[in-house]
Design goal:
alpha/beta; seven-stranded parallel beta sheet; three-stranded mixed beta sheet; 29% helix; 21% strand; globular
């Protein structure tokens, strides 16, 4: 799932098993940046409203803008900035904003007064990495007033059973991904296949967005270079389609 990004703030606190080898921490370490310090963007906070020299909006109508992928939109340190971010999202009703979170328990206290049943142009994706976190976050997620819901099973750390959540028909898409970079834990293709089968059963869209650096398929382990993880995941989806036709 390749999207343009808008990161109105940067930095996060590790709060979950999936955070152990966080890609933001890994990349920030290379740049000598402390990822645990949450900072508001000085140059791109208003990115969705920016115009080029001809007066045209730089973010075109109809795109999906991956939002807060280097932080968490609902992190407490951003409470004083979030209202202005919601205003920007509301102004760009022609753009889809995809917002992932590991902090779905804060959702109801962080939405704008006019949220109602949700903004049409906002997709909220809760992130789960194992069955424990699915059981913790999914009931909260399903009870929130949200018009468009995705699940990010990423980084997937075990075989996750999503059946009881997908059968509600409240989830539009499940996107699965492995862990990247130094110390990456294994992503087993059997886990990916299981989620794909459950999605198919309940007619939920499925995406395998990256294999991770350490990928196991048919009992064989592969070391995948990061720039190839997306392409190899797409090959995995084609493989699933092929065996389904047989």
């Amino acid at each position: 799932m390749k999207n343009l990004q808008w990161n109105p703030w940067h930095g996060c606190h590790k709060c979950s098993p999936g955070c152990l080898n966080c890609y933001v921490y890994y990349l920030d370490k290379i740049r000598n940046i402390d990822s645990s310090i949450i900072t508001k963007s000085k140059t791109n906070f208003n990115l969705p409203l920016k115009k080029d020299r001809y007066g045209n909006l730089k973010i075109k109508s109809g795109v999906t803008l991956a939002t807060c992928f280097t932080s968490d939109f609902f992190i407490k340190e951003a409470d004083s900035w979030r209202h202005d971010a919601w205003q920007i999202i509301k102004k760009r009703s022609d753009v889809k904003f995809l917002i992932p979170t590991k902090r779905i328990e804060r959702f109801n206290e962080c939405i704008p007064d006019d949220w109602g049943d949700g903004y049409d142009n906002v997709i909220i994706a809760t992130t789960i990495e194992n069955n424990e976190k699915a059981k913790e976050r999914m009931p909260i997620f399903l009870n929130c007033k949200i018009k468009h819901r995705f699940i990010f099973a990423s980084p997937i750390l075990e075989d996750i059973n999503l059946e009881e959540y997908l059968k509600t028909q409240k989830i539009e898409l499940v996107s699965v991904g492995g862990e990247s970079y130094e110390g990456a834990r294994i992503c087993n293709f059997d886990w990916v296949k299981h989620i794909k089968e459950t999605c198919d059963k309940y007619q939920v869209l499925f995406d395998f967005h990256q294999t991770g650096s350490n990928f196991v398929m048919n009992g064989k382990k592969y070391i995948i270079k990061h720039h190839e993880e997306y392409n190899q995941a797409k090959k995995g989806i084609e493989y699933l389609k092929k065996i389904a036709r047989q």
